[in-house]
Amino acid sequence: MNTAKTCWKYLTGNGQNMHKQILIDTAAALFAGNKGLLAMDESYDTCNKRFAKLGIAQTEEVRRDWRALIVTTPGLGAYISGAILYDETIRQQMKDGTLIIKTLIDAGIIPGIKVDAGAKTMAGFPGEKVTEGLDGLRERLKEYVEMGARFAKWRAVIVIGEGFPTQGCIEANANALARYAALCQEAGLVPIVEPEVLMEGTHHLQKCFEVTEHVLRIVFNQLYQQRVLLEGMILKPNMVMPGSGSTDQSTVEEVADATVTCLLQSVPAAVAGIAFLSGGQAGELATAHLNAMHVQFKSKLPWPLSFSFARAIQQPAMDIWHGDEANIKAAQQALYHRAKCNHAAASGEYNEAMKWAL
Predict the structure, then answer these.
(1) Run of H or E residues at 9
(2) How many other CB atoms are there within 10 angstroms of residue 273's CB atom?
């Protein structure tokens, strides 16, 4: 069954008075079959910076070509349930005039949309940021639903450092996440709630654990106050890891243990599912961490654990593509392979041999 098409018919047939069951069903579809999400919602600046590093032209046309390469990858829907798009992408057409979002739906992949306006410097809190974009969000969400989106994403960033994070920063971001989530559910979109504790820093594993747990508790308190349906939302958290600049790096098993333990202590069982961000990890390492969580804890998990990766899936393909049409097939094979590896990790079936089995 083409889940994306089914969700579209279900939603449009019921108008704007979205029933809770629609949110629950859409969220469940995004975790069905141990599939995960592909985050392809990079802003103009982020996408252009990645292109620049590889000498790829930074134009709207080339960004379109890159996204077209992704969505036309043969068989991608076998491992990817949903794709998070950027505003530019949800409006873009392929060279033949077909909307990119239609190509996704035809492939059985549920389309989603990034709706925040980015993390901006927080007044009165030097060194910390708050995510903006609530103004006019209700109207924007309505438009995205009409365009075919079935879920949305909003990212908040939390920094660990000397004196960071402050309670004021955490609460401001948690409140924005909860208000966004409530507006999404009102519009019939499943909200992905992403409170990312950044990897940057020299902090140790335990510090990341403590901050992540504290942030998640505050976020869920705000979600409760804003009457967000937990069964109709998805959490997109960071994994619990030492800072990227720490001299005391942890093993794959230690990260898996700390991450799941933290989530069990702070995330209600009613949540529809958890899809991890990679947070700048190398693709193979992020996959190994997700796999270890299932190997160690699969029977104890109250919610499905999957992935919502961007660079960890895309980067090998972009490196191969290099903006050259002649490299599309090889790049798509690499993208497909990374998606397949993460799909295996989402059930604890990934192994080192798969890394090289293109």
Answers:
(1) helix 3-12
(2) 22
Q: Six-digit token pair at 42? A: 């990079």
> What percent of the chain has pLDDT above 90?
90
From the candidates 35, 114, 236, 340, give the one annotated as an active-site residue.
236
Paired strand residues for 130? 120
* Maximum distance among all Cα pairs of the chain, rounded to whole angstroms: 56
- Strand segments, DSSP code E, in 174-272 are 190-197, 234-235
Please identify which residue in the block is written with the tokens 């895309």: 314
- Residues 195, 175: contact at Cβ < 8 Å? no
Strand 129-131 vs strand 119-121: parallel, antiparallel, or unpaired?
antiparallel
Q: Is 114 a catalytic residue?
A: no
Q: Please tell me the distance from the alpha carbon of residue 351 to that of residue 313, in angstroms, as a whole number.
A: 17
Contact yes or no for 209/262 (Cβ under 8 A): yes
Q: What is the pLDDT of residue 298?
A: 86
Q: 264-294 pLDDT, tens per residue? A: 999 999 999 999 999 989 999 999 999 999 9
Is cis: bond before 237, omega within 30 of 0? no
User: In terms of DSSP bridges, do strands 36-40 and 190-197 run parallel, antiparallel, or are they unpaired?
Assistant: unpaired
pTM of the complete model:
0.93
Element (H, E) at 89: helix 87-91
Active-site annotation holder among 128, 129, 153, 194: 194
Asked about 236 being catalytic, the answer comes back as yes
CA distance 81 to 3: 9
* CA-to-CA dists, residue 205 to 124, 252, 255, 257, angstroms: 29, 12, 8, 11
79 vs 90, 172, 293, 338, 347, CA distance in Å? 21, 35, 19, 10, 12
Residue range 3-356, CATH number = 3.20.20.70
Instruction: Return the percentage of the chain with pLDDT > 70, whole number.
Output: 94
Joined together, the tokens standing for residue 132 give: 């903006």
Nearest Cα neighbor of 234 from 35, 30, 13 is 30
CB 310 within 8 A of CB 39: yes
